[in-house]
UniProtKB/TrEMBL annotation:
Gene3D superfamilies: ACP-like. It comes from the Bacteria. This is Phosphopantetheine-binding protein. It comes from Streptomyces lutosisoli. Residues 4-81 form the Carrier domain.
Length: 85
């Protein structure tokens, strides 16, 4: 089974964990924009990290909560989930 967090899932997590509504199409288009321009702050990102750690029962690297853009975050999360690190 391949585990991968998609842009659509990230948009849902942003709503659930941080209360930030972002259209998945907008998020995909803005994947290299800073999270702050999308309305997500560091506490919101920390909430998303916690949700993913609970969902997959795997810790994410400390760098996950310091990611600046959706693309950087998804690349790190997905590579971590694929390697099981």
């Amino acid at each position: 089974m391949i585990i991968e967090v998609t842009v659509d899932e990230l948009a849902k997590l942003m709503k659930k964990a941080a209360g930030v509504s972002v259209d998945p199409k907008e998020l995909k288009h803005a994947s290299d924009s800073p999270f702050g321009t999308l309305g997500l702050d560091s506490l919101g990102l920390l909430g998303i990290v916690g949700e993913l750690e609970n969902r997959y029962s795997k810790p994410l690297p400390p760098d996950a909560e310091r990611c600046k853009t959706p693309r950087e975050f998804l690349d790190l999360v997905n590579s971590t989930l694929k390697t099981g690190a």
